[in-house]
Amino acid sequence: MQDYTPAQQRVLDAAAAAFSEHGFGGTSTRDIAVRAGRSPAAVYVHYSSKEDLLFAVSRRGHEAALRAMLDARDTATCPHDRLTAMVHASTLWHLENALLARVVQHEFGALTEPHRSTIAALRRETSQLVVDAIEDGNASGDFDVADHDVTGTARALLSLAIDLVRWFSPDHLDRAEGIANLNVRLAERMVGSRHRPPPRSPSTGR
Amino acid sequence: MQDYTPAQQRVLDAAAAAFSEHGFGGTSTRDIAVRAGRSPAAVYVHYSSKEDLLFAVSRRGHEAALRAMLDARDTATCPHDRLTAMVHASTLWHLENALLARVVQHEFGALTEPHRSTIAALRRETSQLVVDAIEDGNASGDFDVADHDVTGTARALLSLAIDLVRWFSPDHLDRAEGIANLNVRLAERMVGSRHRPPPRSPSTGR
DNA sequence: GTCTATAGGGGGATAGAC
DNA sequence: GTCTATCCCCCTATAGAC
């Protein structure tokens, strides 16, 4: 994590919006400059190249998503709650930051070394959080993972949140909480959770 | 579905590879021409613009993916087998055609009207197949969908296959069958399938 | 149906004044 | 730290010969 000046932040936000809308290759530095209310040259005072700007956007996004999952993990006290809190937080983060998240998840291939390796490390760290959470529950007997495939199940859980950025837009924000809750229910089933939620009355169910 | 001449097909394949690697905006028509072994001008004999070429790639991919799911659906005789066959087929298609699938799933936003609407219709058709399969099983009592949210569950099932294109490459093809099988197991859990697979001996489990 | 050549525009990035 | 102006390159697409 690192701080940005207001000017840097403004360019960063403009770049995130432009990359999200047109892709890295389809975005011109002029477009970014206009969105940021600056001249094209002003962009290069803060970032040395378009790719450097993508790296800043991508790193900031990955760090924020990771932070959200770490916070969720640390508020829970049992494997079930830990995993579901992480799924809920990750889903909500991708929905509430859909534009940034789209850049994070779809523009990795446009990064060049050494930036690519830095981002790859953040991704591994995030994945490992989910793997660890599943393994904890599996070891304690709270979970019963399909085919004993912990890494594959972790991949699938992450996909539930990540793939939302392919279509979700801020227009749909009122549906975010419902989607996050569904992902939590699905995650419980996917890991074979034996944790029983307090059942709602069947007669008033829905 | 429609046929292409060998020359059209060659340009189409070149474009799919280039779009997959660099994105639509990051791909030049010269790059496509070189990959196809043609001059830049030859591309425009077969396609009127770069966007028209993306449309052809996208339509061909969507139609192939839809066909794979339709074939899977029609080979099954009960709701459980129908859904799992579709999940297996969809997952395998996205893995075995990962480069094309990446264009299909990540470059939708670069399409312009009326192409965008044509592709959107193919996507709705594909989604509806999954929704119908889940509803069938829910109605027959074979499934017990979480929160009674059929469309949300369908979205999640599709994400399990689709999100693979974000990282999967042809280098990993030996893992495709294992991933498809895991997605099937996860799908069974996600829809609350009561169908019991023949249990393997617990003592020799895995 | 393919080529060479090129028109016409927009791209990333920099120079130098303020 | 921001601007205007601009370099130089590559872009999409077309013209016209074969």
Notable characteristics:
elongated, homodimer, DNA-binding, 206 residues, mainly alpha, Tetracycline Repressor, domain 2
Count interface residues per chain for the largest interface: A-B, 36 and 36 residues
Helix content of chain A: 55-70%
- The helix/strand series of chain A, from N terminus to C terminus, equals HHHHHHHHH
Number of helices of chain A: 9
Question: What's this entry about, in short?
Answer:
The structure is a homodimer of 206-residue chains. The first copy, chain A, is mainly alpha-helical.
Protein model, in words:
Two copies of one chain form a homodimer. Chain A has 206 residues and is mostly helical. Chain A has nine helices and no strands. The first copy, chain A, is elongated. In chain A, 43% of the residues are buried. The structure holds a DNA duplex (18 and 18 nucleotides).
Question: Any chance you could write out the topology, listing elements then pairs?
Answer:
The structure is a homodimer of 206-residue chains.
Chain A: H1 6-22, H2 29-36, H3 40-46, H4 50-74, H5 79-96, H6 98-106, H7 115-140, H8 150-162, H9 176-190
The first copy, chain A, binds a DNA duplex (18 and 18 nucleotides) through residues 7, 28-30, 38-46, 48-50.
